[in-house]
Amino acid sequence: MKYIILLCDGMGDYPIAELGNKTPMQAAKTPNMDELARNGEVGMAKTTPDGFSPGSDVTNLSILGYDPKKYYTGRSPLEAASIGISLDKDDVAYRCNLVTLKAKDNTYDIEELSPSLIMDDYSSGHITTDEAVELIREINDQIGTEDILFYAGVSYRHLMVWRGGKVKVKCVPPHDITGKKIGEYLPKGDGDAILKKLMDVSAAVLHSHAVNEERKKENKKPANCIWLWGQGKAPQMPKFENRFKLKGSMISAVDLMKGLGIYAGFDIVNVPGATGYIDTNYKGKAEYALKELEKKDIVYVHVEAPDEASHNGDLAAKVKAIEDFDDLVVGTVMEGIKQFGDYKIMVLCDHRTPISKKTHTADPVPYLIFSSNKQGKVDGAFDEATCEKGRMFNPAHNMMEYFLRK
Fold first, then answer.
1. For residue 377, what pLDDT is reported?
2. Strand order of the sheet with strand 343-348?
3. Measured between alpha carbons, how far is 120 from 122 in angstroms, rounded to an integer?
4. d(CA 53, CA 256)
5. Are 198 and 133 in contact (CB under 8 A)?
């Protein structure tokens, strides 16, 4: 038996007037997911346990079969693992976004942190990795110390490691505060003065950097500040193979997912052209997944695009991302996986990211499970309304064991 999980990040949503009170899943043309749903099983999964924020770290940990109450320590240690950073037991990793802050006069000309500044873009206009690497290297050279180090990741997503640092501080994800003044969302708690100082000084470092000067000439948003959040220490969790006796691979363009795969003991597969955005190599991810199934028991394919579109409030991009996922990922897998004989496919999102909110919610998410040797009969398409009539997994970390039953 071969198993594949196709994760469409942030796909779930709420009805939208512009779509005739349909959700993006209902409005999108998704013949492949609809076919799997009609001949399989659908339902809902509560991927965010009570008391947790609905981040992709928590929700994907749940989907992989790990109880966040036992194993969750924070987002950034997972991203550290992805870029090869080994954390000592007292080290604290922080996500370091390159963001665009805007002043009251609607300009980007800032040199220091001020509570009145507005979070204009959590991704600095989806800055390229090459540009971002230059900026993070400059930040590390200028404000890094023996105990505080900055490491480059992908696009706007980077890492800070604080040796012997503080972890009991409230930090807000920048994508949760798009369009809002940052004052009440700055770090609060143990070590907050150091974190705010780093963010403040970063604005001065980035202000006149050549990369930003060039971006402004091209009418692109400058990366004019860092934003620190998602802190945590290295988790201790058992390998997936030890728990379920299956060897797996993880396919994602996102460091968070790669790091989660590393801690679970999965092989990490990097697909050319995979960006974590709407221009990602959808079909390549599916083709690489099928290749991995020739030697592995289970493959986890993560596509970030709908989530990014939601954070940007881009309805058209979200619908297109869902349609591309259905056509190029699900469709390619459906055709190619037949070679293996017995197989199971699970399709779901990790959390909802409603366009109206531009951030994640803790609502249960829709899922489908299709088995090559057990045909179901579902009345309806694959969407939130149809899935609400099915089984509810609460908590969601029990769903993996159910999916793997033969």
1. 86
2. 267-269, 248-251, 298-303, 2-8, 343-348, 365-371, 41-45, 391-393
3. 7
4. 16
5. no
Looking at the chain, the number of H-run helices and the number of E-run strands are 16, 17
241 CB-contact burial (10 Å; exposed 0-12 / middle 13-18 / buried 19+): middle
Asked whether the bond before 395 is cis by omega within 30 degrees of 0, the reply is yes
Q: What pTM value is reported for the model?
A: 0.86
Residue 100 has φ and ψ, to the nearest 5°, of: -115, 115
Burial tier of 406 (Cβ tally within 10 Å: 0-12, 13-18, 19+): exposed
Name the burial class of residue 194, with classes exposed (0-12), middle (13-18) and buried (19+) by CB atoms within 10 angstroms of its CB: middle
List the Cα angle 245/254/236 in 5-degree steps: 45
pLDDT for the residue numbered 257? 96
Which residue, chain included where needed, has tokens 């705010």? 196
Non-local CB neighbours of 369 within 8 Å, separated by 6+ positions:
40, 41, 42, 344, 345, 346, 403
| Residue 138 Cα distances to 116, 129, 203, 370, 388, angstroms | 26, 14, 12, 49, 50
DSSP state of 328: I
CA 24 → CA 55, 252, 319, distances in Å?
A: 20, 23, 5
Kindly compute the dihedral angle of the four CA atoms of residues 253, 32, 278, 151, in this order, to the nearest 10 degrees.
-10
Helices 129-143 + 210-217 axis angle, to 10: 140
Give the 3-state secondary structure of residue 330: helix
User: Which residue type does 226 have?
Assistant: I
Tell me how far apart the alpha carbons of residues 232 and 315 are, in angstroms, rounded to a whole number.
33
Q: Given this model, what pLDDT does residue 406 score?
A: 64
- Residue 357 DSSP code: T
Q: What is the pLDDT of residue 336?
A: 98
Distance CA 351, CA 305 (A): 13
Looking at the DSSP bridge assignments, the partners of residue 393 are 45
**Helix 56-63 with 255-264: angle, nearest 10 deg:** 40
**Regions in the chain scoring below 50 on pLDDT:** none
- Per the CB < 8 A criterion, the answer to whether 150 and 158 are in contact is yes
